[in-house]
Amino acid sequence: MVLDRIGSSVFTELIRAFNVHGTQVEEVWSLDTLEDLKPIYGLIFLFKWQGGNDSSRLHPDADLSIDENVYFAKQVIHNACATQAILSILLNCPMINLGTDLESFKDFTKEFDPDNKGLAMSNSELIRGVHNSFARSDPFMMDSSGSSSSEKEDIFHFISYVPIQGALYELDGLSAGPVNLGPCTEDNWLEKVRPVIEERMARYTSSEIRFNLLALIKNRDEVYRTRIQEIEGRLHHANDTNNSLELMQLRDEREDLLRQIEFERIKFKRYERENSLRKHNFIPFIYNMIRILAERGELQARIEYARKETTKRIRERRRE
């Protein structure tokens, strides 16, 4: 899983493709900002994979028993750790409306063991179709070893953190089981998960800084509109009591929320475009462009120009 392939836009569109509504994914730039994103249903942590560092080995003393309240599936799909990571949260959050298709899949497979849950995911037409729609060049294929297809390419892995029935779980499809990290509540689970993520980061050398943390949260548009409705009620009361200061503060907050709603609309439009471009196959276009330049006798000159420009930029960067 290459680092720059998966971000909040892809995860958000993945959720929509599963017909799950009322949620979205946001990138977390700092652990200090988690409180600003509440309610958070779960976190997804992306890190560089190193052989043998699955969750069960990193937490040798943790409880790996299969709790009936935890939906845990083994990863049997070679390059679908991102898809499995988001499913690990969706299928373990009763507050989320999964929609008919995903709810039916969960009900059908809930009594399966982790291996058969993983196999069911690989054979689900819904999950297979959604995964493949975001994997232009990567086939949806089985791989029992969990290894990469290329030793030279950096491999990145996704795991999930979810509060389930009063306990914090680390869900890693390559692990021997769901890792119970101890008791938590809906109010303090973010405090509990923070040192766990920090410890994950600390295991790497100072030269490895490629991490990414994403949060599955309630749809911001819904959150903002609900708050606007609350403000409208308070505005009526403030107007009746002629409280000018409160009126001004509430109106300012309402305007700010309306701007945030517009920002979300623009952001989702950008997501649609990004994912459209991401899934589009540009190889035929590039091939034909190179072929036409060659037929015109212009290709070699373009190559020389590009080489000179590249050398020039390298020199300029060295001088900075």
UniProtKB/TrEMBL annotation:
UniProt keyword Amino-acid biosynthesis present? no
The record, for CDD domains, names: Peptidase_C12_UCH37_BAP1
The record's InterPro entries line, in alphabetical order, gives: Papain-like_cys_pep_sf, Peptidase_C12_UCH, Peptidase_C12_UCH_sf, Ubiquitinyl_hydrolase_UCH37, UCH_C
Q: What is this protein called?
A: Ubiquitin carboxyl-terminal hydrolase
Q: Site (Important for enzyme activity): which residue positions?
A: 172
Q: Which UniProt keywords apply?
A: Coiled coil, Hydrolase, Nucleus, Protease, Thiol protease, Ubl conjugation pathway
Where are the catalytic residues? 81, 157
